[in-house]
Amino acid sequence: MDIFTILFWVIAVVLFIVSLVKSKETTISAMKKSRDMMGSMIGEIIAIIFMIGLVLTFIPPETIKTVLGTSNIYFSTVISALVGSITLIPAFVAFPLVGSLVDVGASIVPAVAFLTTLTMVGIVTFPLEKKEFGTKFAVMRNLFSFGFAIIIALLMGVVI
Amino acid sequence: MKIITIIKKNKLIVLMLVVYLILFIVSPEKAVQSLDNSIYYLIEMFQILPVIFLFTVVIEALIPKELIMQGFGEKSGIKGNLFSLLLGSISAGPIYAAFPISKMLLKKGASVTNIVIILSAWAVIKVPMLANEVKFLGVKFMGIRWIFTVISIFVMAHLIGVFVKKKDMSESITEKEGSILSIKEEYCIGCGLCAKTLPVYYEMKNNKAIIKQIPINKNEMEDMVEMVERCPVNAIVFYRTVEEEII
User: Fold this and answer.
1) Of residues B129, B164, B193, nearest to A36 (C-beta)
2) Which ipTM was obtained for this model?
3) Residue B82 and residue B96 in one domain
4) pTM (predicted TM-score)
5) Is A99 on the interface with B (CB under 8 A)?
6) If you write DSSP's letter for every residue of B7-49 in order, what string do you get?
7) Is B127 near chain A, with CB under 8 Å?
8) What is the pLDDT of residues A44-77, one digit of tens each?
9) A74, A149, B65, B209: which has the fewest C-beta neighbours closer than 10 Å?
10) Are B68 and B57 members of one domain?
11) How many domains does chain B have?
């Protein structure tokens, strides 16, 4: 385990003990709630990780490097942002997925665009958002989020 | 019948199982290689998964959300913006899980800008997820993305606040939502918590919770309110104000 993981473990365990000491009841009911939420995702998480294994075996790193790395970065960024907008996978599994692609040489610019639109823009959940907040709000929020996702991605490319 | 529902519920993992099985027959070498690759990421994932779980629990148990929720009206200014950011960051679940709670806040007087901040922060900057990001993409990546994202959220929220006024949303805000107790089917994840806790009022049908009976006396109300708060996706709608009239 790397240093940050160990650090997170320590913080998490300490806070958890504090929470238990403060109120055992609230902590246990919070545990039940999180367990229900995460439990429904665990199958999907494992499945996607096995998919990563396949991708890394069958798509040679050089291909990933050219398509998501050295070739037209603007094009691949917009495409990644679009893919992120229509996919509905938990952010949870998006990190190992994106991490694995960056590990073999994908550029971080499309990676960031994908990560941001994945969670902020929701084509699939659009009808729901429209129903709750009205068409104008839903359209605006999704369009702006898409635009800013690309801006954040490009800025990240400059800084890192 | 039962097997079919299990397969339906775990479509992706069944698909992967089939793919790997075929691969083992066609090209065992590639299959082993894929398995090796996967196991590496699987181990990494399981190192961080308990941390995410613990963070989610601790945030839920230790932070008084009600207190934060009082902090953002139309004139709450920068403090309201920060409170919104905080509320979004400490919440769990995908963005659509934020819709019911945001709508409730909107009705209670939160500004459009603050609603955009809550929704966006809820989507991208979840505290437990930051640990996950550091694990797979590094601390520098996470830190810089966080800064850019927070700035973008504020700019975007204020822009939308200029373009979209509450009256544009009035129709969806004032609409009547049916009876005093109802379940928003599109949000229900079928966890069965309500049916397990209060089997008198809720039951599961086709993997969604449905209402069996509406509570009438005061003691039942208390249980009901507690249940509404426990629903992991806030899919249960319950009007306490109407309750007084009924009694």
Assistant:
1) B193
2) 0.86
3) yes
4) 0.78
5) yes
6) HHHTHHHHHHHHHHHHHHHH-HHHHHHHHHHHHHHHHHHHHHH
7) no
8) 788 888 888 888 888 887 888 777 777 788 888 9
9) A74
10) no
11) 3
